[in-house]
Amino acid sequence: MNTTAASAPVTVLVTRRVRPGRAAEFERLMADMTSAAAGFPGHIGGFLIPPQDSGTGCYQTLFAFDNDVHLHKWTHSPQRQAWLDRIATVIYGDNALRVLTGMEGWFALPASDTKLPPPRHKMAFVTWLGIFPLVLVLSAVVGPLLSPIHAVLSVMVVTGLVTIAMTW
User: What is the number of structural domains in the chain?
Assistant: First the structure.
């Protein structure tokens, strides 16, 4: 595994169908499982998303770790398996598990009606639509102030400002 992949945060989305009349028990078990996961290195957070349509019983669980290595340690741990065994008594059918990397989580929020993120070329285009005007404006405003310094440092400052603007 390369260090870039190992250092990138990873989010997992799991969909489970809960047996009728067992929702409260499922929610309690999932809260306890999330607490157990929080004790593992790299755990960023997790939460349970209740069904949009109460008739489906489909819950979604979203949890994140700071990298693939820490996620792997949790997903292959005996503690997680013990929780999955307990949860198996209150769910039915197949679980749907998706690992979200990059920006696809921006485009397919778990509580929305969207089932899959859009194609990568559309995500790239939307990202470009956000970055292009920022680079254009920052280059015009900050660029002349940075012209006395080395070109690499100038680009570093502009891209740093773009990153900050896109993040916050």
Answer: 2
Q: Say if residue 104 is in the same domain as residue 27.
A: yes
Residue 94 lies in a domain: yes
Judge whether residue 89 has pLDDT over 70: yes
Q: Two tokens at 135?
A: 């680079």
In tens, the pLDDT along 101-120 reads 655 554 444 444 445 556 77
Whether 82 and 162 map to the same domain: the answer is no
Picking from 55-69, 94-108, 121-135, which range would have the lowest pLDDT averaged per residue? 94-108
The answer to whether position 117 is within a domain reads no
- Which residues span the domain enclosing 47? 3-112
Q: What is the pLDDT of residue 90?
A: 93
Find out whether 29 and 18 touch, Cβ atoms under 8 Å.
no
